[in-house]
Amino acid sequence: MGVPSFFRWLAERYPLSLERLHRPCGSEGEESHAGAGPIDNLYLDLNGIIHPCFHPEHGPPPASEDEVFLAILAYIDRLLEVVRPTSLLYLAVDGPAPRAKMNQQRSRRFKSAAEAVAREQLRREVEQEWRDVGKEPPPRADDGEGGGGGLKDSNIITPGTPFMATLGRWLRHYAYARINGKRFGGGEGSGGGEGGGVEGEGGK
User: Fold this and answer.
1) Mind giving me the DSSP string for the chain?
2) Above 90 in pLDDT, residue 68?
3) Looking at residue 110, what is its pLDDT?
4) Dihedral through CA 195, CA 109, CA 51, CA 170, nearest 10?
5) Model confidence at 149: pLDDT above 80
């Protein structure tokens, strides 16, 4: 579920734990390891990958769930090309959170949905006022809510939803295709936060 300011605390307390990436993603080179020497294990919190792939800051939003899944796997592949872990790849996905956390998330998300409905209603009223005076309302700009035919409801990125179950199946197939000695537990297990993951020996 995340630890507030954890990265800042880690960077300030252990500054040598951060390494600069010397090799850009996709560049050629037999040895990479992100410029930090051989790396044994790579642990990824997929929340930091799923959400940017679901609603990217640059470029059009994905038109289907399959596009999201493909973008997620492509992102993981790019990281593997750079880091090249020698022993293990661990992919962590959210499992069911405690009731209080789930209630907090639902309240926040339903409030966001209600605000979106109110904005849409206000927008329609303004457009109608333009038409009433004989003018054509200006074209709508993409407001970051998934316009242009893309996916809109980020609530599907919640443990227990069909979206997350399907993502789990995609990750299983990904593990089978990429990793020997893999082991996967999806986001169905309890534990709150990053409760499931793919583990693979021989991460290359």
Assistant:
1) ---TTHHHHHHHH-GGG-----S-TT---S--GGGSS---EEEEETHHHHHHHHS-SSSPPPSSHHHHHHHHHHHHHHHHHHH--SSEEEEEEEEPPPHHHHHHHHHHHHHHHHHHHHHHHHHHHHHHHHHHTT-PPPPPPP-SSSTTTS---GGGSSTTSHHHHHHHHHHHHHHHHH-EEEEEE-TTSSSSEEEEEEEEES--
2) yes
3) 76
4) 50
5) no
